[in-house]
Amino acid sequence: MTPASTARTAVSTSLLEDFSLEMTGKDVSRLEEAGDAIPQGTRINVTFLGNEDLQMRLEAARAVKRLGFVPVPHISARRLGSRDDFERFLAALHADGTSDNVFVVGGDPAHPEGPYADSLSLIDTGLLQEYGVRHVSVSGYPEGHPEIDGTTLWSALCAKYAALGAQSLESGIITQFGFDVDPVLAWVEEVRNRGIGVPIRIGVPGPAGVRRLMGYAARFGVGTSASVVKKYGFSLTNLMGTAGPDRFLRDLAEAHDPGRHGELKIHFYTFGGLKATSDWAARFRKESLA
Ligand SMILES: NC(=O)C1=CN([C@@H]2O[C@H](COP(=O)(O)OP(=O)(O)OC[C@H]3O[C@@H](n4cnc5c(N)ncnc54)[C@H](O)[C@@H]3O)[C@@H](O)[C@H]2O)C=CC1
Ligand SMILES: Nc1nc(=O)c2c([nH]1)NC[C@@H]1CN(c3ccc(C(=O)N[C@@H](CCC(=O)O)C(=O)O)cc3)CN21
């Protein structure tokens, strides 16, 4: 092995240490099926989608805990109808012992369904701490967001970071998924330049069909130019294939400079493929170690 490839292998292994996964409220049986392939203690995020209800979200977080993982329930500000809804969710999580870690996010509805227009307003209620939350993740957008301008995104990120620090809550950032490492690392540098040193989980899709990936990318405003997806490992002319983040992770590992970029970890958006992603991660890790 050459010195360069030794260095790359070492970094890519540490990048995959303590990766996190994401599931929806409907994925409980898939989680049971994938459980053995996932390292105990792995953080597993539970989405807060419009087509889930309170019971599904709570049940999913309970299942994550029961199977030996760390639940990270999402709370979407714009999808909460009232302060009561927010408190009811937090109280139930607390009672279940699944409220230690949460991810707060604005939410896709163009108009808030209740009193909270953004995730900062959830933090500012002070309710998180009251219900036992200790660690709060917020989102990051290396490629920007289709509905929110760049200046707003940066001021929101800095304000959330400051507000969490002021409440002595631990924090972290999870990025929107993407297919191109370059904007991710440029964005990470900007985060560090703004004085935010917390761990950043880089969002990547688990292995999935190309058609499915393209659909989600279009829905969430993630770039899929021909050159970017070619670099990632698929072609726009073959929608029947599948693609995993192999090259993305190798490129990320190669370019990751801990002195400049700080602590980075990986967050897998599984898009219905919890088992496929868990098996893939175990195999990729083993190959990196070999
Ligand atoms: N990264 C992810 O995994 C996920 C991202 N999202 C979406 O990302 C967007 C932003 O969420 P955060 O970064 O937490 O922002 P945020 O809650 O910190 O808000 C930042 C700024 O954007 C505005 N904003 C938030 N959501 C908006 C929307 N849907 N349309 C127009 N303006 C909006 C807020 O009023 C605020 O000024 C939301 O649309 C959210 O639904 C949703 C679920 C998961
Ligand atoms: N702006 C934005 N909004 C989001 O809601 C969002 C992002 N970004 N980034 C990625 C994450 C992950 N998201 C999702 C969304 C849907 C499923 C999902 O499995 N949905 C269907 C399955 C439909 C299908 O078969 O494709 C479901 O059953 O709910 C998973 C993750 C939502 N997320």
From TrEMBL:
Keyword Flavoprotein tagged: yes
Biological pathway: One-carbon metabolism; tetrahydrofolate interconversion
Molecular-function annotations in GO: FAD binding; methylenetetrahydrofolate reductase (NADH) activity
SUPFAM superfamilies hit by this protein: FAD-linked oxidoreductase
Transmembrane segments: none
Keywords: FAD, Flavoprotein, Oxidoreductase
Position of the signal peptide: none
Needed co-factor(s): FAD
Biological process (GO), any one: methionine biosynthetic process
Matching Pfam families: MTHFR
PANTHER family: METHYLENETETRAHYDROFOLATE REDUCTASE (PTHR45754), METHYLENETETRAHYDROFOLATE REDUCTASE (NADPH) (PTHR45754:SF3)
Family membership: Belongs to the methylenetetrahydrofolate reductase family.
Protein name as catalogued: Methylenetetrahydrofolate reductase
Source organism (scientific name): Streptomyces guryensis
